């Protein structure tokens, strides 16, 4: 239902809220919220990614931040409709602070704010050169000794890191580093991306040959340059690799391939890093102000240590090193693990006539890809959503507008509907002996991903192979590796010519330990997780992804990662934080959580 009553309701609430903030009347501002309110801020007020839960939390933030934020110009976005359903009025809003412009969403209940999303879209005076402000490119007129675009790019590549220092160094040139690098390029932040591989996109090319994206194309666009309309719904890994390589060139990123960081040390007095890089055999010392670790949300590979591994006569490796099935035709393989990589690898091995057994050590959440797209994603990320006027930015912000504290309540009906629709599928899996779960509170895949980054499989075909007995199942913990296979804790022996350890990854701060030192890794603590006190996401509650895309306990150190959606969405807010620091703006950070878990 849409009518002027609800538009007037939003306008009146925003007017009262804005007037209270402008007057510095925090009591009146807080009174604009419901008792059970949530305010999620993406940089605008907190220079952080932070959710305030309840009126007291809103009050504490405003007492800390209001005097320097100086918010103003609150209004409904006149280009968007106000929606009213189920007792909630939802509106897109615009606002400003002293140094930025912002966009967000408000959900009102009985004229008061229940959820509020505020996000920084640009810094005043430092806007991206987009649209009407795009660069001319051509140099009209005449002049002696003028340089071409190619000459200017070559000069930049020769100078940056040698005669001129970057402001920011990004370690890791996968999708996260590339997306952030593109944002920083548009903001004029001198940046170097350090990548160990030979070419951009190799982090995808070098994985097992059957790997493809399990997320649909509408969810996976990179900043500025969306996939073309004929791009496949699910992208094969090598196609993604080629796209990332072309994107890196088109977006003019300073991307150092065949390069590794040997060490990094922070000088707090100078507010500067000293980073030693091996650039294709040449040692280069960089002195940036900011260091971003974009080495992958999953962090370092968890390679297990089982008794007897040295005696195994076949091949054994972590899933991240799996070359594909070609060398194992006619042989026996055991894959330890039962999440995405394990399923993909098992299916590819079966397709290549390998006798393959999956070892399931704990329950796994499975959702069929088609069902996830139809029920879980279609309203925001689908061809129909695009046809209905949904943009990538609106989809991202809609998802971001639901605070993590209540997101599970939004997700439970989605997965209940999927379970009902696909009951025969799940019955078949359980009959085959596969042990299923739906998350700690039946909230499904997204909450598992946000809480722990593991424990699920988006089914693109392997589940039917399990149902049909083509992929064999074993259960339990590995107690010993023997020369021709492995032994489980119930005494079962599995013969194998190949063992793949699809045993996941550790926290990203493991990279910080290797590069900077264990003391810094422990100082910043665990990356990822919400503190939900569910399996692999220990409490206390922090309400946002630990350490991701925002300031950490180590000055000048940032973490950037996640899937393509998160790399796109959160790179905007991380780039604005880095730009503000380069320009010397005052960035008082509110609410960096204490470190409770070091790994």
Written account of the structure:
This is NAD(P)/FAD-dependent oxidoreductase. There is one protein chain. The protein is α/β, with parallel strands linked by helices and 599 residues long. It has 3 domains: 2-123, Nuclear Transport Factor 2, Chain: A (Roll), CATH 3.10.450; 153-300 and 507-528 and 548-583, FAD/NAD(P)-binding domain (3-Layer(bba) Sandwich), CATH 3.50.50.60; 309-501, 3-Layer(bba) Sandwich (FAD/NAD(P)-binding domain), CATH 3.50.50. Helices cover 32% and strands 23% of the residues. It is built from 18 helices and 25 strands. The strands form 6 sheets. Strands 1, 2, 3, 4, 5, 6 and 7 form a 7-stranded mixed sheet that branches. A hairpin with a 2-residue loop joins strand 21 (478-482) and strand 22. Helix 5 (175-186) runs parallel beside helix 18.
Protein structure class: alpha/beta
| Biggest sheet descriptor | 7 strands, mixed
CATH superfamily of the largest domain: FAD/NAD(P)-binding domain
Low-confidence stretches: none
Q: Give the number of helices.
A: 18
Helix content: 25-40%
The gyration radius over C-alpha positions equals 25 Å
Task: Please report which band the strand proportion falls in: under 5%, 5-15%, 15-25%, 25-35%, 35-45% or over 45%.
Answer: 15-25%
The figure for the number of domains is 3
List keywords for this structure.
599 residues, alpha/beta, Nuclear Transport Factor 2, Chain: A, FAD/NAD(P)-binding domain, five-stranded parallel beta sheet, 18 helices, 23% strand
